[in-house]
Known about the structure:
Blueprint: H1 2-7, H2 24-40, H3 42-49, H4 51-65, H5 72-79, H6 83-86, H7 88-98, H8 117-146, H9 154-163, H10 165-189, H11 192-199, H12 203-216, H13 218-236, H14 243-261
Helix pairs in contact: 2-14, 3-14, 4-5, 5-8, 7-11, 7-14, 8-10, 8-11, 9-10, 10-12, 11-12, 12-13, 13-14
Amino acid sequence: xxxxxxxxxADSGFARPAIRKIGIADITEAxxxxxxxFREKPSHYVFxxxxxxxxxVFLMAWSAGAxxxxxxxxxxxxFALLGPVAALGLYEISRRRExxxxxxxxxxxxxxxxxxxxxxxxxxxxxxxxxxxxxxxxQSIYAAYFGDVPPSSFSAFFNEVMTTPQGxxxxxxxxxxxFLFAVVVLATTVVAFPLMLDRDVGAAAAIDTSVRATxxxxxxxxxxxxxxxxxxxxxTIPIFAGLAVIMPILGHSTWHLYRKxxxxxxxxxxx
Length: 271
């Protein structure tokens, strides 16, 4: 049954792939390999990833125009919570290149025909729920310090946040809450989507594998999360245009990080 297959693997079993211990050098190597994938056909990848900066600009414009300025930063930062599922096409391109197959940009949409699509959608829905939860928490924190009345303009909003004690408290608690959401997403999806795309183990096993990989490699995975966060911030500085380069590099690198963290069925685990 499809509903059961969402949680279990294609063979209706609960797989627990073996996890490797990795080091900081493996993170560097994954980034180098992701850069190599990007350089292979950069015009194709930039074309594919134009959706990321466009979506970011849309979120900013919509937030300002709809008088939702308090949600401007939560929307932009929360957009990154959906990054693992948004990069599915990039994982597929790296997978095809690794196997010596044609890796032109149109193959990014091959994930729509993947037998693991129900499981992928299930974990994607999980991320969407976290995204909405983050927005609700952020709105509640803002309301606790500034009430339910939205600011009259961006300058007034910026002044309130940056020059008042309430604004400093908002920044502190907002960033703490955002950090906790980011940790949950990182720990549960660091290898989840590449694993489902590669081996169709089911949603539950994919999340379980990500959590085990995080527990086994807390420092490398934490470093990976910091690198992702830093690069995403850098990518947003030139009105989000940098994301057209940052996102594909991170997407490809995530595939190679998955290869380093999760043991292939034909390769014995390293002790």
